[in-house]
Model the fold of this input.
Amino acid sequence: SAVISQKPSRDICQRGTSLTIQCQVDSQVTMMFWYRQQPGQSLTLIATANQGSEATYESGFVIDKFPISRPNLTFSTLTVSNMSPEDSSIYLCSVDVGEGYEQYFGPGTRLTVT
Amino acid sequence: DAKTTQPPSMDCAEGRAANLPCNHSTISGNEYVYWYRQIHSQGPQYIIHGLKNNETNEMASLIITEDRKSSTLILPHATLRDTAVYYCIVSDNSNYQLIWGAGTKLIIKP
Done:
């Protein structure tokens, strides 16, 4: 299993600014994922972040808008850049602990852009 | 796009079994069926997964039809804390990616 924490838990930001979200895992994991959950919607995968390699982005998400760092096996950051109100969402990180069958999720970061 | 179809909402009385259906008629032979749930304001939580056989753990049972085109998640004795959105997902684990559909909002009523 894995315990995941995210910082901040929530934030209210102004249009045009950037926010960096941190994801910390209590054990070393190879695969980490970042998701977005817009209000009332399901989860959409933003990117997969493996340590030692560039993040792989899904269609509709680009590195300039959502740069990701993965400096080690227990930590990752997602930055939401040049924010607009459309970026208001819950951002979640998850990990696969290598068993291949279940992912563990953080509690999410609730972002509101005004 | 998600490869599963679920009813948007269901009600269940507390203490009764909650049976949540999922259709996955285009499932491939190497794809697993996963169930997760998301309680309000929390991250999703893994419940159970299966390939062909029925599975049971401390949280739930998963019944997969013989042709694997549909499945049912069973919460044997639902409690108010089981109120959540339940997601049925199929994945072959090749890239560990999960494609999330809309899920079923399950409301447990006292």
Notes: Chain A touches chain B through 20 residues (CB under 8 Å). The mean pLDDT of chain A is 93.
